[in-house]
């Protein structure tokens, strides 16, 4: 518990410094700077990240030697797959969100990840699969926390824009809660190794998570504006 508290102080400091909720993408969203077409383009690009997230978890699981440490991640992956109920698979609930904001099945099927999203997906997969697992796991913890922090912002924007009774918004209301839980579960596993020389490795991983995910938001914003 002491190591977890110590680690949380580091993550709280990181989020206090970066203030991901104030990222220009969400500021522009709040200020209604995007056209309807731009909003759809952003949502579709995030869809290609959501599609990939289970692969990050699978990659880190491959890299973790201790089954006891893997178990919380296996449960996380189980939830990503809707606990085997296709209706609640996270990529499917996000797809329902896309349809709820007026994006057709054809548009979803024809959409392709942009270069920034491809670069992000490949970078996180590589980090999880080919480097010390504590580094990749720390990054995933930060990514989960970022999503938990920004989901209320996206959910509020979508409610104001597309109607508060829109049932497709369940994806974001779920993730406000689930991703906090998942982030803490990951931090708990990471904290088991938060000592000695591994501290620096873990803190590097935390910074990687913040850098890669916030940079992905920045690149999507630039891509949409250009």
Extract low-pLDDT stretches.
Answer: none
Mean pLDDT rating: 90
Broad structural category: mainly alpha
* Termini separation: 47 Å
Number of helices: 10
- Helical residue percent band: over 70%
Largest sheet: none
Series of secondary-structure elements, N-terminal to C-terminal: HHHHHHHHHH
Whole-angstrom Rg: 17 Å
Total count of strands: 0
Strand % is under 5%
Shape descriptor: globular
Question: Can I get a quick summary?
Answer:
This protein is mainly α and 226 residues long. The chain has helices spanning 2-18, 24-30, 36-63, 67-80, 90-100, 105-110, 115-130, 133-162, 170-191, 198-225.
Features:
single chain, 226 residues, mainly alpha, 10 helices, 0% strand
Notes on the protein architecture:
- The protein is mostly helical and 226 residues long.
- It contains ten helices and no strands.
- The chain starts with a helix and ends with a helix.
- The model has no long low-confidence stretch (mean pLDDT 90).
